[in-house]
Amino acid sequence: IPSNFTISNAPSSVTLSWNGQGVNYKIYRGLQADTLLLLATTGNTSYQDNLIEGQSYYYAVTAVDEYGKE
After folding, report:
1. Which three-class secondary structure state does DSSP give residue 48?
2. Do residues 26 and 62 make contact, with C-beta atoms less than 8 angstroms apart?
3. Which of 59, 53, 56 is nearest to 10 (CA)?
4. Rounded distance between C-alpha atoms, residue 54 and residue 47, angstroms
5. H-only helix segments in the chain
6. Proportion of the chain in helix, strand, coil states, percent, rounded to 5
7. For the range 23-28, what are the long-range contacts, defined as Cβ-Cβ under 8 Å and sequence gap of 24 or more?
8. Digit-coded pLDDT (tens) for 5-44
9. Is the pLDDT of residue 1 over 80?
10. 1, 27 in Cβ contact below 8 A?
11. Cβ atoms of residues 2 and 25 within 8 Å
12. Does residue 24 contact residue 64 with C-beta atoms inside 8 Å?
């Protein structure tokens, strides 16, 4: 399970960082908390996303084990 989730933002991007023991991580993003869609899958414990300035975004990160289970 990802933990110690942090967000660092710049005018047109955001960097998400977390700690975890997953093989991979799935990053979800949405314009509302209840409409998150899969944005990316990464093996890293950070991810940089480009943004539209002035728009609010919601994120979630899940760990994926060696069997592909979240």
Report:
1. strand
2. yes
3. 53
4. 20
5. none
6. 0, 55, 45
7. 23/63, 23/64, 23/65, 23/66, 24/63, 24/64, 25/61, 25/62, 25/63, 25/64, 26/61, 26/62, 26/64, 26/70, 27/59, 27/60, 27/61, 28/59, 28/60, 28/61, 28/62
8. 898 988 889 999 999 888 899 999 999 999 999 999 999 9
9. no
10. no
11. yes
12. yes
**What b/e sequence results for 32-64 when a residue is b if at least 16 CB atoms lie within 10 Å of its CB, and e otherwise?**
eeeebeebeebeebebebeeeeeeebebbbbbb
- Using CA atoms of 51, 21, 18, 14 in order, give the dihedral in degrees to the nearest 10: -10
Instruction: Tokens for 12, please give them.
Output: 């047109």
Q: What is the amino acid identity at position 29?
A: R
H/E stretch holding 51: none
pLDDT at residue 9, as a whole number: 86
